[in-house]
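Field guide to reading this record: the first block holds the primary sequence, the second block holds the structure written as discrete tokens, and the final block holds curator observations. Each block starts with its own label. This record concerns YCII-related domain-containing protein, catalogued under organism Poseidonocella sedimentorum.

BLOCK 1 — SEQUENCE
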Amino acid sequence: MTAKTPEELYATMLRRSLWVITTRPARGPGMQDLLPAHLEYQIAMERDGSLFGAGPIFEDGGSVPTGGMIIVRAQDEAAARALADADPFHANGLRQYTLHRWMLNEGAMTVTVRYSDQTAVVG
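BLOCK 2 — STRUCTURE
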């Protein structure tokens, strides 16, 4: 069996562009007041298919988030930026963000659907 070249391996990879929004909280007054609106916005993006994943970032084994990461599906950078700008935390200046294009090549997702109790587990 002949080993594949890097070009041959790359040709079969997913190569799906996603957009990664990394956030830095300002931790000012109003964060707790806008938390429900922020979470509702992310749930709406999840339901309309634009949210790939989101959650807090912890550094050095800490238990207090130091930022956040939101991965979105968008046609281009302008569409991704519009999604980020509309987040209530960003729109109200309570968080700043950085936008990166990320190309998803490798990985896997496991989904278990149990018919007996109609549950699903993502692992």
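BLOCK 3 — OBSERVATIONS
The beta strands are 16-25, 51-57, 67-72, 95-104, 111-114, 119-122.
The chain has one domain: 15-122.
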